[in-house]
Amino acid sequence: QNWTRGMSYCLHSESHLDTGPIYVRENGKLHMVNQGAGGIQNVSPKTRPFRLFSRGFSVELCMNREDDRARRQRTDHFIFTYTKEGNLRYSAKSLFSLVLGYISDNVDHIDSLIGFPEQIAEKLFSAAEARQKFTEPVTGLRALQKFTEAYGNLVLCSLCLRNRYLLISEKLEEIKSFRELTCLDLSCCKLGDEHELLEHLTKEALSSVKRLLLKDNSLSDAGLRRMTAPVRVLKKGLENLLVLDLSCNPKITDVGIGYLLSFKKLNCLDISGTGLKDVDAVIKRIQTQIGLVHSKVPLKEFDHSNCKTEGWAEQTVLQWEQAVMEARKPQDNLRSRTAALRFYGKTHRIEEVVKCKLVEAETKTSGNLQFYKEKVQNCHLPLKKEVVGSHELRNSKKRALAEQEKERTSKQKHLCLTVEDWDLLNTY
C-alpha cells in the first residue's frame, strides 16, 4: 500500500505529462494504474492502436530538394510533344542545344569570340538575347563587347535612335560599343556640341559610317569644327560619309558650313533650318567646291523612312527601349497634376518641347536647303547630240582644271591651322 501511495504521488506530480495508461505486472498479473483514484485496478487492458506520432503530425521528404530554377533547368533537357493518339511523349534535347544554353547563361565569362564561326555565333547571340543577358547593367556590356569586337557590322550595321534621347543617356556605353556602322540616325536628340557620343563619331570605330542624320541636335559651328577636325587634317574619321543631315540646327552659320567642305565624297546634304546669313553665297560655295547642286524638291534621302535598326542586336535595342519606358511609368501618376496646371492656364514647357520636335521639321520645309550630286548620263544621249557632247566634255575638263586649282588653294588655306585646331588635334 505504501508503494501504491508513492506511485500515486508520482503520477499526480507529473500530471502535466500525457503519458497515457500505465501497466504494472505484479506476481504474474497485469494491473493498470488508475490515475483518478490513485490506485491499481486489476482490469484486463483494452487493445489500443499503437501511435508513434500524434494525429496532427506530418512528414515531408526533403531528399534531393531543389529550387525552382534548378528544377526548371532539369526539365529543359527534354522536349514534350503529343502523339496522334493524345499521349504525352518526351525526347531528350541534342547536346548542341544543351551546351548552347549553358554558354548563353554564362556569356559574360567568354574570353574572346575572334575566329569563332559566324553561324554558331549568331545562334549564341540569339540565345543570350532571349535570356535578356544584354540588358544587365555590367555583365551585359561586357558580353556585348565580345560580339562587336569579333563580328563588327554583323551585330549591328544600322542604328536608328531618332527621338530616343533617354535611351542614349541610359545605354551610352553599349551604343559606343557598336562598330562598323554604316547608318546612324540621331535626329531630335538635343545632344549638343559637348556630348560624348558626338566625340565618339570621330573615332576609327565609326569611320565606316556613310549616312549620318544629326537633325535638331543643338549643334553649332564649334561642334562641326570638332567633328570635322580628323577629316580636315588627318584624313581620318568620317571620310566615307555620303549623306549628312544637319537641318534644324539654328546655331550653325556660314562659318560652320565651311568645315563641311572637307567631305569630298558627300552625295547629299541637308542644311535646312540653320542660321545662314548669305544663303546664295553658301549655295554657290557648296556647288563649286564639293559639286553639290541645290534641290528645289525635298529629297527622299532625308525622309527618315529608310533608316532602321538592322543586325543581330535589333531585338536587344528594343529590350533597352522597353526597360527605359518601364522606368518612366511612375511618372504617369503626375498626369493629374499636369491636368490641373492646364486648367489654370499653365502648361508644362518640357512636354511641349518634346511634342514639337517633329513639328519643327514641317514648319521649316519652306526654306529647303537640300543638296545632291548630279549623275553624268552621257551614255543615254542621242546620236544627233554627239557634237554638243564633245563641247560639254571640253567645258567639263576646263571646269575640272579650275576645281583642281581651287582645291590646291583650299588645301593651302587648310594647312594654316589656328591655335584652337592644334589644341583639338592634340586630344586625338
Automatic annotation (TrEMBL):
InterPro entries: Leu-rich_rpt, LRR_dom_sf, LRRC42. Gene3D superfamilies: Ribonuclease Inhibitor. Keywords: Leucine-rich repeat, Repeat. PANTHER family: LEUCINE-RICH REPEAT-CONTAINING PROTEIN 42. Belongs to the LRRC42 family. This is Leucine-rich repeat-containing protein 42. It comes from Rostratula benghalensis.
